[in-house]
Write the structure tokens for this entry.
Amino acid sequence: MTIFASRRGLLKLGGAASLGLVANPAVAAPSTERKLGYAIVGLGQYADVILPRFAECRYSRVTALVSGSMEKARRYAARYDVAEAGLYTYDTFDTIRDNPDVDIVYVILPNGMHHEYTLRAAAAGKHVMCEKPMANTAAEAQAMIAACRAADRKLMIGYRCHFEANNREAMRIVREGELGKARIVTAEHGFNIGDPTQWRLNRALAGGGSLMDIGIYSLQAARYLTGEEPVEVSAVESTDRSDIRFKEVEDTINFQLKFASGVVANCVSTYGSGHNRYRVVGTEGWLDAEAATGYGGNRLRLRRNGQTADHPAPDLPVNQFSGMLDHLSQCVMTDSQPIVAGEEGLRDMKIIEAIYLAAREGRTVRL
Ligand code: NAD
């Protein structure tokens, strides 16, 4: 996860951004203006966020839709200008191998289906964008990486914050030492979950509770802000099992990560109350982001040299969603590794499993 490997890398980022290219110093601009074709698998709430963003993409377009209902697929096809030949059900999905207009399959299904559809996409010869969390387990994540590698296809996880201006600026500030030495990270993510019948509360489909769905943003933030990997985790779970929503998965699981440099992250993950914030305190100042990881309207404040002020991040050429979609297209066209490849999803899955173990056994787990 070395986005900001050096000051020189940063200068390259500035140059790429001013040229209107995707915000990633590691990937050269493709030599053509060709747009790669995406198949969207699962037409739920998040697909509704992603689909309109293709309009701002330079290297990506939608060429196929996969849904349980052809009637629904046709409705979406009319809205996003997808040909009838690009419409599939889950049963006909494997025939997507015969569709040359599809380069990338984007899996936006419940977590418990990510593994199966990534394997089927790779077997169909397609590159894969897979939503977070990557899978239900680290073992599944490993199998997904192996399948894509064996098929010589790219695998990227939909970690959109790596393409969002404020988050990139926060990473730069912390990693370049502008707050002095980073000491304490606090990251909070949560919401009060509603409908008890939804898949997010079903263990087989969700893999777990708040940690898999929303707490993963706290984990990601602690890792991408510091640019370090945790060496120890501890955790406390608090779930009211008499609440009908939490028969199968956890509500709140707060965890602490200790990194090799000594920086400690205190992280909140909950399905009981609304949180979207992080804060990094260093020896020379702090940064505070709230909202931190939203779809829009994120805000950053900084304290340095005894002054506290809003800190608007430099603009990126495109919004986080289009930047993310184009990043994978560029990686495919230039045969480069995505900055948030399958290996990045696997790292989170391993830490998530350690967090659950630490909470279950009431002990510190070494990674
Ligand atoms: P959703 O419930 O709105 O959509 C899921 C889709 O999968 C629906 O179209 C549903 O019909 C389909 N589906 C197929 N088989 C299903 C089954 N057996 N049970 C339930 N649904 C089934 O969910 P969503 O909010 O769109 O989440 C989908 C994925 O996207 C999840 O992995 C989630 O974590 C991820 N997500 C990511 C972000 C982000 O910001 N990166 C935001 C929201 C969701």
The mean pLDDT is 93.
